[in-house]
Every structure is written in C-alpha cells, then in structure tokens.
Task: structure prediction
Amino acid sequence: MPEPKILLFDIETSPLLLYGWALHEEIHDPKFVRRNWFVLCWAAKWYDKKEMFFSSLPKYRGYTELPSKTDANIDKGVMLELWKLLDEADIVIAHNLKSFDRKKANTRFIINGMSPPSTYEMIDTLTEARKEFKFTSNKLGYLSDKLCVTKKMDPGGFDLWLGCEAGDEKAWNKMGAYCRRDVLSLQDVYTEIRPYIRNHAPVNVFGDGTGCSHCGAKNMKRDGFRHRMSGVYQRFRCNECGTPYIAQNPKKENIINIS
Result:
C-alpha cells in the first residue's frame, strides 16, 4: 500500500518598504508601499525522510542587494520549487500554516502567474497547540524549548533581514540555517503533540484502513473499555505514537496486531 507523503515546511519573507511621515504613525494606505513583500527562502522535508529541501533568492540572483521597488517576479524560481513539493504532498504541516505559510505561499503563486498546487490535508501545529493545551506561549520557539530535542534557532533580530537586504552572504547563510532549523523543530513539536490532535488527517486511509489514523502503525494495544448508553466499547492505544482510540461499534474491532 502507498505511504502518505507528509511535508513539513517553513518560509521566510522580506519586510515591506514603506513611505511614512513620522515614526509613530501607522500606515494604512497601500499607496505608501514602495516595495511589497516576497519570499526570501523556504525549507521543507518529508516527515519520514532525512533529506532537507531548501531554496532562496541568491540561487537565482546571487548575493546582490535586494531591489528597493516592487519586482513582481523576484521570487518566481523559488516559488516554483516549493510549488512542486506542495503539489506532491498528501498532508502538509507548518506552524501557523492556515494563517501565514499557506496564504503567503498562495499569494506569491498567484502573483507569479502559477495555478494552485493540488489539494492537501493541513495540520497547523499552532492551531492544535491553542486548541489542546494552555502553554505560556504557543510560539514554535517556546514549544520546541519545552518539548523537543531540536531547539529553534535565535535569528539575532532584524539585523539578519537587513543583512539579506544588503546582499551579505553570511546573513543569507544564517537565514538558511534558521529556516532549516525551524523545520526540524516543527517536526519534533508535531511528533510530540500528534497523539492529542483530535481531527488528525487520517493516515491509515493510504493503507488498508486499519491501524493508527495518526501515524499508520498497526501495533496497537488494548486499553480497557468505554461504557456508553449504546454499549461497551473496547479502547485501544497506539504503541508507536501513543494515540488513544475507541472501537467504532461494540461488536467490531477494526484493528490488527493487537497485544
């Protein structure tokens, strides 16, 4: 049976360049925008593979100063590479995927004249952290510090983005390392919170429909019973990822390799 293609990714974008009259005034009129944002770089990997994919503007432009005015297709090559991975993915995971990464990617796809990638299931670790937990902070850095082996990297503040604006090679290398580390931290965070995700995209549909819907493992154990008005239901727990389950009905056990 085919395995689901689960993609983790992270993107980094440029700041807007704006006109303004004073530091304390907010800009609301799009006419004040001198240069719109675009994607500086992205990193991605398949969940079950070690290889890290990465693309950034210097691949297409070299280490040159970024333009001060809008260049609509500045990141087209970078986005074409990301599009191919998203088009191939069955499930996509990112931190703040629904409000940031997906929308930012889609914006640059359409501006660059590209059609949308094939549809995919989404797992947003930020959304799930907010729904299922009460951490002091739901930022990736905080979650990775509390839960993971791979800690999020400190980019060193806005100076890193200024260095990329100036075409500084060291700044771009650090930006790449920062983006890649985010993907590794994301994978750790996802793995830790996965058993708590209630509406996880069903991984087991890519097999024979049995086993763990969160990780696809067939190694399950009995975990007592759940009594309901409609009957007594067997409880199970995945021995691989720890996700708990309840049988769909009191008479049928659609699980194999039960210990």
Observations:
- Residues 252-259 have pLDDT under 50 and may be disordered.
- The chain has two domains: 6-196, 208-246.
